[in-house]
Amino acid sequence: MTGSCPPGRLAAAGGTLALLSLCGAEAGVSPGATYYVRTDGGSATQCNGRSDTRYPGSGSAQNCAWNSPLVALPNSGTARIAGGDTLIIGSGTYRIGSQMQPVPSGSSSARTRILGKTGGSLPKLAGANGIHRVLNLEGSSHVEIGHLDVTDLSDCVFNHSNTTAKCDSGDAWARVGVYASNSRNVWLHDLDVHGLGARGFQAGALTDWTLERVRINRNGSAGWDGNVGTNGSNAGKIVMRDIEIGWNGCGERVATGEPWACWGQKSGGYGDGLGTTSTGGQWLIEDAYIHHNTSDGLDLLYMNGADSTNVALRRVHAVANAGNQVKVSGNALIENSVIVGHCTFFKGKYFMQDGDSCRAYGAALLLNLTGNDTVTVRHNTIAGEGEAQIVHKNSQSSDRVHILNNVAVGFPYFVDGSRSAFSAGKAPGTRTVSGNLAWNVSSCPEGVTCDSHDLPELTLAAFDSMWCADDSARSEDAGAPCLDRARPGQSP
């Protein structure tokens, strides 16, 4: 990728985001001009934005930084940066009280770049006045955005059903962190998008997007909502690596970063970690932690089923989402992942209602087959309290399903306390079920070795995804029940 940085990592420490092993903001410099923003900069009249220095205190048109990203991309009038330019934002908090205009499109050889300056804390873009979007990528293509904290400074949740949590006419909140539509060739990296009144991302009609080291947590309605109007279908390669999507459908306490006021669809909320409208594209999601969202965790049920579309999930840890943990349609590969259907986690908590728990009978993994699909589920650990660990829907005779070398652990079915099933589905097409291990499940289809011994040390509330039953379970031939980089669940 042109102008890309060596891989880094986001690490949560004490509720804050630390950037580890990241390259400098100036790496892979765009051929365009470079502009600077810092908290001690000046207005458009006082400074030209061309030097990373403070405003000296007097004079106009000085060679110094601007004092806000809004100077570069004002709500109205002409933008002060052009396609292919770079805007480097210094550390500190910047109140975004009016909606910035879209980032100007770059070109295939020169992206427009909006970057936080590295070497300190992430610059914070704090939406205010209830603005609809903090960062605006409507129609923006060939863009790179990185090293930023995108949030607001209010605990409130937009349109919450409870008045104690609902946003009022105050000026400290914003609806959406990143809005994007009709946008292609975009690279987002090293972002923390959290605490927005409604959605972290509202993004659809995308082509060839990449997210790396991005956190989307504690946004009041949803983490990623793909509904941008009448046509939000995506195309090309949609890549997400080293991401976290958690506690969406909850507000965020500004003072502590804790989730609160969690609500679901039964009380007027939404709650998906990531959800789309009807979409195409080739989706690749790797090294993802998707947890404690108040509806589905990863909802790709609206893949359009075209033969050219597919979803690949690798090293995904999905746990304690109130709906399904993972759901996909069409061609799919799910491998080396841990999927824990603790779908009653929110029962009796916050503003959640009982009907919000365990949608689609609590299946941990839901596969929707559309005809001429190939779906492979291999080397995963799948546990849960739903009716079954894996559920198939709408299969046709041309579909091919391969359930290979997985481990399943059943827990009492949330409806009646009976054991949940290991289901290989009843697809009328070609099915291959082989090398699977299962404990405490109510059914044991051909291709699954089942054991009914109790495992008292295992509970859904503290499911240890590093656990292996014995040495044989560590072999790829017998199954791959362990995730070598499991992340702990989070509870407030």
From TrEMBL:
Residues covered by region (Disordered): 473-492
Signal peptide per UniProt: 1-27
Keywords, in A-Z order: Signal
Matches recorded under InterPro entries: Pectin_lyas_fold, Pectin_lyase_fold/virulence
Name of the protein: Right-handed parallel beta-helix repeat-containing protein
Organism: Luteimonas granuli
